[in-house]
């Protein structure tokens, strides 16, 4: 859309994060509680434990970077900072 081109003309992709629900044993669960710390409602089930995942895709909808396996309690900023420290360039 040409209306938005001036804002995105030098953009090569998009970064976003999401929480993926998981199950784990009771003694390992605490760090995986999501950032709300309460049950989140999903269409399919209730969940409070998750992995925090950050992905980058290009405008062809191809994934160009994935950072997964983070505990649900990890902030988005922590996940991004780790990626930047590992050589990911924004």
Overall description:
The protein is α+β, with helices and mostly antiparallel strands. It has one domain. It is 16% helix and 32% strand. The protein contains two helices and five strands; from the N terminus they run H-E-E-E-E-E-H. It has helices at residues 5-8, 76-85; strands at residues 14-21, 40-41, 46-47, 50-57, 63-71. The strands form two sheets. A three-stranded antiparallel beta sheet has the order 1-4-5, covered by helices on one side. Strands 2-3 form a two-stranded antiparallel sheet. Strand 4 (50-57) and strand 5 form a beta hairpin. The longest helix is centred in the last third of the chain and has 10 residues, at 76-85. The two termini are 24 Å apart. The model has no long low-confidence stretch (mean pLDDT 83).
């Amino acid at each position: 859309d040409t209306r938005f081109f001036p804002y995105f003309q030098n953009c090569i992709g998009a970064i976003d994060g999401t929480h993926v629900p998981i199950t784990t044993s009771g003694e390992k669960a605490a760090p995986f509680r999501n950032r709300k710390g309460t049950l989140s409602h999903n269409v399919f089930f209730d969940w409070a434990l998750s992995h925090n995942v950050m992905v980058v895709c290009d405008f062809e909808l191809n994934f160009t970077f994935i950072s997964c396996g983070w505990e649900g309690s990890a902030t988005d900023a922590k996940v991004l900072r780790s990626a930047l420290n590992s050589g990911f360039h924004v």
